[in-house]
Amino acid sequence: MKITLTLPELPYDSGALDPVITAETFDYHYGKHHAAYVNNLNGLIKDTALEGATVEAIISKSFSEGNTPLFNNAAQHWNHSFFWNCLSPDGGAAPVGEVGTLIDRDFGSFEAFKDQFSQTAVKLFGAGWAWLAQDENGVLEILAMKDAHTPLTEGKKPILTLDVWEHAYYIDYRNARPKFVENFWEVVNWDFANENLK
């Protein structure tokens, strides 16, 4: 998916995922947190050689050069833009299409994958993301990535993600991250996951 240096429109109404994720959470998570990453990123690249670069190019360059503030804001903008599309009011149930076939192949069953992904998301200490990614050989794997980190920096193709920073769930679930992770499966967008496969 193409991600620009602007705050993207949500692919659904902010109340469409209620009660799994409420409009109030979107007001803060999307309207304040994500918007701040976009504003910070644009401020950091203003009048630099990266002005006009793609978000992916900024992530790559800032990561390789160890420019943590620039990397964090670029990666968090990319991650969030991707994450909103991993959710759908028409989502949930078991995966269909190629992603379902590959999950069965690489994890044994959807239930085994769901349990492993959920445990990864619940047990990730502090802030970060649980990712389903595809490696260079087309094999699916689950990655626990701290803070703003993304499979892009490891040469892997992001397929699906779940944000487990506290601001993703605290309004709706307080400190009950496991409940948030459990409810994610009711709105997961398998169509988007299929689109991301190599």
From TrEMBL:
Mn(2+) binds at residues 29, 80, 163, 167. GO terms for molecular function: metal ion binding; superoxide dismutase activity. Pfam families: Sod_Fe_C, Sod_Fe_N. Its EC number is 1.15.1.1. It is an enzyme of class 1 (oxidoreductase). Coiled coil: none annotated. One of its GO terms (cellular component) is cytoplasm. Residues 6-88 form the Manganese/iron superoxide dismutase N-terminal domain. Keywords: Iron, Metal-binding, Oxidoreductase. PROSITE patterns: SOD_MN. Transmembrane segments: none annotated. It catalyses: 2 superoxide + 2 H(+) = H2O2 + O2. InterPro entries: Mn/Fe_SOD (IPR001189), Mn/Fe_SOD_BS (IPR019833), Mn/Fe_SOD_C (IPR019832), Mn/Fe_SOD_N (IPR019831), Mn/Fe_SOD_N_sf (IPR036324), SOD_C_sf (IPR036314). Residues 97-195 form the Manganese/iron superoxide dismutase C-terminal domain. Belongs to the iron/manganese superoxide dismutase family. Destroys radicals which are normally produced within the cells and which are toxic to biological systems. This is Superoxide dismutase. It comes from Sphingobacterium paucimobilis HER1398.
